[in-house]
Design a protein that fits this description.
Elements (H helix, E strand, L loop, with lengths): L2 H6 L4 E2 L2 E2 L1 H21 L1 H7 L5 H30 L1 H22 L16 H32 L6 H31 L1 E2 L5 E2 L1 H21 L13 H14 L2 H4 L3 H17 L3 H7 L5 H6 L19 H23 L6 H29 L8 E8 L5 E5 L3 E5 L3 E8 L4 E6 L5 E2 L14 E12 L2 E5 L22 E8 L2 E8 L5 E5 L15 E6 L10 H25 L4 H21 L5 H24 L6 H11 L4 H12 L3 H26 L5
Helix pairs in contact: 2-6, 2-7, 2-8, 3-4, 4-5, 4-6, 4-17, 5-6, 5-8, 6-21, 7-8, 7-21, 11-19, 12-17, 12-18, 14-16, 15-16, 15-18
Length: 696
Amino acid sequence: MDETKKKKKKTAECCGYPISIFFIVVNEFCERFSYYGMRAVLVLYFRYFLLWDDDLATSIYHAFVALCYLTPILGAIIADSWLGKFKTIIYLSIVYAIGQVTMAVSTIHDITDANRDGTPDNFTFHIALSMLGLVLIALGTGGIKPCVAAFGGDQFQEHQSRQLNTFFSVFYLCINAGSLLSTLITPVLRAQEYGIHTQQQCYPLAFGVPAALMVVSLVVFISGSGMYIKTDPEGNIMWSVCKCIGVHTHTHSSVLSLQKLLIAQIKMVLKVLFLYIPLPMFWTLFDQKGSRWTLQATTMSGDFGAFILQPDQMQTVNPILILTLVPIMDRLIFPLIQKCGLNFSPLKRMTVGMLFAAMAFVAAALVQIEIDKTLPNFPSSSESQLKVVNIYNKTLNVTISPNKYLLIDSFEVQHTFKHTYFTLEKCNSEGDTDLYFFLQQEDSFPEGKKALYYLFCSFLKVGCEYYFILTLNPCLLESCCLTAVLLVSHLRRDFVLRHGEQWCEFSQKFGFGASYTFLIPSTVFSTDVCTLSKTEVEDMKPNSVHMALQIPQYFLITTGEVMFSVTGLQFSYSQAPKKQAGWLCTNAVGNIIVLIVAELGKLPKQWAEYVLFASLLVAVSIIFSIMAYFYTYIDPAEIEAQIRKEQGLEPEEKEKETLEMEEKDEGQKNDQEVKKNQDIRFVKIRLCWNMLIYTL
């Protein structure tokens, strides 16, 4: 059956809408939940599960996002030239679902945790599995991106133009609903504790729920298969452009005249693409809200009193502000500027949007400076941190060669930094015989690694002899282990100490990012009654800078997004309708820039990197404003009408030709129907992309 007959196929309707579009809408909601839910916790998975540093976690995150914005080109080529939209969505959704499941499996630490210490024994396995999953996800989500909305538009008949507009509005709402809900829910799932042998943050659940939603998305879409209007591949625009160039170069002028419209469109596209050159820098800053800004939030307090906000939940501020600012800008700000007589053209709006993004990173730098004031002094890559804990009931003198001396009171802690090789010479108590010992670090650490040693000086008197107990963390002497390390995800925890039938309990409130050492004397169970007199040592102070301070930078970056992204797509459609792939490529290039800076920049302070990005965007916005000043706006419809006029096809004549063709044989009717459907499809796709501008 040819395309024309497929378009004539009668479809079941409900309230004037094709029933098939309900499957598409549910499919899109589940897919967006799956993608944004996985992406919300991705950088923290890199940082705290795979134990990568901030720079590597940021680089891999942006490499993944860049790939997600490059693969739509591949998906469009496959759909237009080979499989068609329906089969492309099915096949790439299967790849997508496999990727999500693979990613969820890679987060199960018990798979390789043979010694049951809560840490994977084979990180290579988890890294390889997660990278495979991310590649499959990027192929899937990017591949179906240009197909789903256009496929939904294909389901409507000519008399359903009103329903078509409503469909795209609902489609857009589903995208935002999926994004907003997943960014709220998956961080909560991640913060839960799970584990067969040890309790860890629940990354398998945080990635497993998006994987399940992707499977549901695929099942729902396949369920509506029998109701869909499925069009055949129409040929790829890239091939048409190349063929047009070949015609322009080698063929007769009479054939060339048939290609004048396409040639004019190509010129419009190239003119707009030239303006795209500076645009990736905006996305370089914008997409860091999912990486650098999330990592910044991990060093802040999320205690809002009534609720606790996880660091990766701060990203929800962006979609909430989008839903708020878009109508305010469209209905209030822009009309007000126009009434004031100011020429706030689309390119000027985009320039201002870039400046807002730069201001957002200046705000982020100021917040980072405040955070840095509260952070502890961490050891450098060539140092170790030694923590000496005195759990003896007298003051201890500790000598660390060559000339480091520590005087530690009873039940106190002191920290010191030493280079990789160090010797601890003497640890003695006042009034007692000096006890000498040597701690020699024989093996150097791998480059870039940092170590934190806990040294516990304790004396046990047995008869007339003293025994010195030395314990490193993790404990080397299991029979006399003096410490345990526990990661706490809640603000308050209850602790129970048990010895036989005796037990003691106490409750402790913890601050975000803090580290504590509890010194519990052995006399706690010396009597039948619990006599707990613990000593609490605050090794690292809790995060004191509140996450609410990130709201101004989110407000600035979202304002910039509305003025840059929304206006940019509207401008591009008004100047060159066939530019979608180029716009997605600017996003991909922007993420690649972040990757390069994160790996090669290596700035000592994070606030300096924020200032660097802000400065680069200001410089780029100046260049863009100069390019915009010399840009001449065009009217594609007017150019098309002029070309048609030159070819002798006036609008009235075209209408007359249409009426005459409807009275001819069936073959001529089919040709005319195909032409109409091509025009309708173009209008549908254009409307579709205008409604999806916020997904970028």
